[in-house]
Each structure stands twice: as structure tokens, then as C-alpha cells.
């Protein structure tokens, strides 16, 4: 269907698959929730019915709370009050939750509500959270997001969006096997510390027995034998990763690790392989994080570096050409041809978004120039001989990531050479606007 109805997809701004849109009375609502049937049904009910269900009896209220993992109830003696209207407005906007509303004294008593307000009921942790203070839309949204997730969230396809799409951008990840004999005791300790950082850091477990999580472990340079272990990530402009100074998982070690990151005492962790024996014996030198700066920033040489990924098809096609380039310059004292596996080695000063990426670190100045010409021996050789002028990338050729800020989303962005999740360029937005205007004009005719 998506290959056949391309014009239809273009007309309605479909940029990725699957995309779900709901059409009602001429308005279009795009679905951005989870992929389970329950989540889609809940969203549809919200869009086709009242934003908050009327809980007019104890039976209705008990069924509403008992049948949902998380349920939000507004208690308002005056259903047309300013606070009730704020509650309904939030209910209409937040599709991830089910909302109920009541003015019935008996329901107040049954659900132990002593006054007007909002209570979040949940089937985990403390069981319920009462909103305190003046009712404001943004504050209520933050309250619901903060309290609707367990203190310790198990990572899965279903929870990924809630984890990475929330307001909390610091996540402490515990990589652990659910089959291990001490799983429950370790998670209990993890949960105890999580209470202290509620609202600041999300605590997440990642089951290392699940094959779907192997890519996540690769992203952190972890193997199953390295677990159980923690890594903390901060999702800001760049994803920063932090490694605990010790491999213990005691209460004090977990607490000290998280505090150390939040207080800036623990530096960002950058992956690096060990320097391989004989790394400089072949025409193409092998760089890793530990020897990169020493080689690349040697001002007496022009250093050309290919940043590659072992699984990248384009990198494999380039390999024989690059080896030939190495042979060509192997006797030159002022030129170094090198390569680095950028999936296993990270650099604080250089972020690689696509593979292969070729950069020239210039002699004398250490100026860095990226190559964007044809991947041929002649093209790359000319790039070196013209001191990085021929085929250099324009400054604005950097592809900005604008997709889901999840491990899976960023991984897809990298693997598709910056296609999946790329920010829409202004020209593309303009073209889209022109197409929409033209279509609207045709519709009028």
C-alpha cells in the first residue's frame, strides 16, 4: 500500500511507516502512542468520546480504577469550576492516560478522596499519588508523567516511548539477566535508591537475556559477561554516557554513581578498544580512542581517517580502495592513512553520524576537513593532494537528527546514513507547504 499510494501519503505528510492518522469531521489527528492494541484502542476512545469518563457510581469508579494499570480521577463538586475545566483540558491532550471525573460524595468516600483534587491510581509502587497545590495545566501534566511510571521501569518496545519521550532526560540503566538467581534482590536495591531520585533520574532495567536488546548492549560496548552493570545516559543535545567507577551494585555504590554524574564529578564515558598490537605496521594504520589524538593531531603530518562500521555495506565497498590508498602513501613521512571503528571507539571532540565518514586532519594547523567527494582512489587522492580542498564537505552538510530520542531511533538514524529521523530541511518544508496549498486549491475547485 505504501509503495502504491505515494501521492496520498505525500498529500497527508506521511514521512515514516507505520503512520496512523484518525480523520474526524474534517480534522486529522496523528497517532504518536504505543504499538499495542490496548494503547491504540484507548487513544481512539479518547478521540471519539469525552476526554474524562463520568464516574457517577461506586460501581463505575471501582471498575474504572481496577481495570487500568494507571487511572487518573478528578474529584470536583462543581464540574464546571475553573479547576474542573483545567482537568478536562489536560485529559483531552494527554492520550497516554485514562481520565475519570466525579462529583459524587459516595465515590469520594469509596476512593478515599477527602477534598476536591486529582488522584493518580496505579497498580505498582505506592498505589496512588495525590496532586498537591494549585491546579495548573503544566504542573498537572508533569505530575502525571512523573508518577505514572514505576520507580524501576523494565525496558521493552512498549515502555520505550514512555521512557525516552518523557521530561526526565537522565536515565540510570541496569543491564541484568532476569534468569539470574539474584535478580529480584538486585532490583529491590535498585528500586530503593530510585525513590531518592524520583523526578530527576529514571531507573531502568534492561534484560540481557532478550536478543532484541543486543544492539543496545553493543551501543554501550557491553557483552553479556560484563553484566550486571550500570550505565547512566543524559539525553540532551548529544547523548552522553557515564560508567560507574566501581562494578558493585550496592545501595551506596548506586547512589554515589548517580550523584557523581548529576554533580559533574564523573566524566562522560567514551568507548575505546585497546590499542591493537602492530596497529601501525600496515599501510593503513588502525586507530582506537586511546591513540587517536596522538596520531591524528600530529602537526607534522596530514592524517586521513576513515570512520567506519563493521556492518556497513558502503564501508566494505570502500575497503579495497582505501587499502590501495594506504599502499600509495606508505612511504610518505608527512601523510598517514588511518581508519577507526567508530562503533567501538568514541571521541569527545568528534561525533560520527554516518558511515563511512572520511576526515583530513591537516598538517600544521590540525584543521579538520570532511571529504564529500566520490569514493574512488582518484577522488580521495586528489582530496589529500589539494590539502583538503577537492571534494570537501560544505559546512551545512551536517545532517541533524530530529527523530525519536531513543536508543533504537538514534541507531536507525546512524544505520540509514542519516535518512531515518533526519530533520526536515527548510526547502523540504517549503515544498510540502506548496504541495498542500495546491491540493487545497484543487479541493476547492
From TrEMBL:
Keywords linked to the UniProt accession: Disulfide bond, Endoplasmic reticulum, Isomerase, Redox-active center, Repeat, Signal
GO MF terms held by the record: protein disulfide isomerase activity
Region (Disordered): 423-445
Protein's cellular compartments: Endoplasmic reticulum lumen
Keyword Repeat listed: yes
Top-level taxon: Eukaryota
One GO BP annotation of this record: protein folding
Keyword check for Metal-binding: no
Catalytic activity, EC: 5.3.4.1
Thioredoxin domain residues: 245-389
Catalyzed reactions: Catalyzes the rearrangement of -S-S- bonds in proteins
GO cellular component: endoplasmic reticulum lumen
First-listed, main subcellular location of the protein, grouped into a coarse class: endoplasmic reticulum
PROSITE patterns found in the cross-reference section: THIOREDOXIN_1, THIOREDOXIN_2
Alphabetical list of Pfam families matching this protein: Thioredoxin, Thioredoxin_6
Compositionally biased spans, kind Basic and acidic residues: 432-445
Designated name of the protein: Protein disulfide-isomerase
Organism from which the protein derives: Argiope bruennichi
